[in-house]
């Protein structure tokens, strides 16, 4: 049972070394990303940083959805919670930035703990519906509580420390935090904790039958996923310099879900690729015009019909067809 | 080892278990037989915490475990296999056993890959025992039905159970697989594992069991050594005759 060591490997039980062969491609890509600011104009740095944020958000959702099998329909709630927490600390206190950075994920994590405690008691679609309902509650709160959250107007501008106020600073922070977070999540997926999580996804009854406390395990994973979504929210604040209720709207959650479907949920890196494609697409198509939801809907239809395993899943399937060892069936 | 007293369980008014009581002795193989719908699977679900009994007591080593959660029951040393196969489809065969081993060691929440490699050798031993050592790297969902049942037994054994419950372990198996499974069950008491199993194959039941419990319509209508039960069985052909 040799497992590929790189980020580019599948969680769907590909047992032969993956087609991307080890960690070197990731290291190479990392080096390129590190030197991009030297050549790219500010606008593209801003775009890239947006991709990093979306990638982290998408991978955080895949952790609970793809690996945990929990139908989280409201991941943007934790993204928004992290963003608002960071925005509030930055605008209302004089605390240094290294306090702000953990404040976002911490807030999102606590929110995930409280909401997750109720959600993990439910199965499948009921779980999903409760996440959606609780998410809408938080959204309504953010949109109505003018005195605290700025209501519909959100919070803008948000004062950032000097080293982050340039596009280059935002780019580097987003890059470093995203890569570090992905590395942590990847380790988690590959750990006994992650393996057990995938076992629960495949068969919760059997998992309980071999002594696993299913709900506790799911709740822990839910909180971890929320934490990283919250961290992505902080990065959004750094990159965009503002927050508003659209950050935790259900359409935002749907967008993240489509990133997962686009890239494929069976691979670790697939959702990040899906995030990149979707962010680029939204830029090309003139950023959130009234047609954006229509575009998302069309993407969804095309995926459902032609690429149910997502782009990365599709590529991996193609490449592993050349590997007969994986296809032997008794 | 196990004493079941007056277990009742209804499904919306229908009494699937209507006061079942019997004992299973340590180091013995006990079979639970009865026609389809007698309540055998429901009984196993109650014994392992997957269903809460409406009433009655389940004394495992003199502790009442009625109403305990499945994962708690497993940790006390009661493991089971399911009538309908129940494996982790998208994990490899080896990983299926590793998950059970980690759980038994209290390391399901561990973050270190080290714990995984530590239990790999033991997992391979268990696969060897159930004859699946050649399939370690295969996805469990791709195994044949019979092999999935064997894998289930392997996962159950990973819990180092003192009491092992097998719900129709050979249903759907080929004759060779059935023979191998029978051999496996026969060796278990010598390794300190008490066995309680249900089965429709009467040759297997009478060939393996030290004691037979007959269930019908949620009631235990007879229990005793195979010879005694066979004598009753002759009279009650109706119950034993139904082999589905
Ligand atoms: N979850 C359930 N809901 C309703 N009825 C059930 C349920 N589980 C079992 N039953 C009923 O209880 C009876 C006993 O079923 P079961 O324990 O599966 O029998 P056996 O395993 O002996 O064939 C059957 O009549 C079955 O229909
Ligand atoms: Mg049954």
Q: Explain this structure to me?
A:
The complex is a heterodimer of chains A (330) and B (244). Chain A has one domain (32-326): ABC transporter involved in vitamin B12 uptake, BtuC. By secondary structure, chain A is mainly alpha-helical. Chain A is globular and about 55 Å long. Chain A has helices at residues 24-35, 42-67, 76-92, 97-119, 124-144, 146-149, 162-165, 167-190, 192-202, 204-209, 214-240, 250-263, 270-284, 292-306, 310-320. Chain A has 15 helices and no strands. A six-stranded mixed β-sheet of chain B has the order 6-7-8-3-9-10, with helices on both faces. A four-stranded antiparallel β-sheet of chain B has the order 2-1-4-5, covered by helices on one side. Chain B has helices spanning 40-47, 70-76, 93-104, 113-129, 145-157, 175-187, 202-208, 226-235, 237-241; strands at residues 2-11, 14-24, 29-33, 55-60, 63-64, 78-81, 163-167, 194-198, 211-216, 219-224. Helices cover 38% and strands 25% of the residues of chain B. With 244 residues, chain B is α/β, with parallel strands linked by helices. Chain B folds into two domains: 1-75 and 163-168 and 193-244, Rossmann fold (3-Layer(aba) Sandwich); 78-160, 3-Layer(aba) Sandwich (Rossmann fold), CATH 3.40.50. The longest helix of chain B is centred in the middle third of the chain and has 17 residues, at 113-129. Bound molecules: adenosine-5'-diphosphate and magnesium ion. Adenosine-5'-diphosphate binds next to helix 1 of chain B.
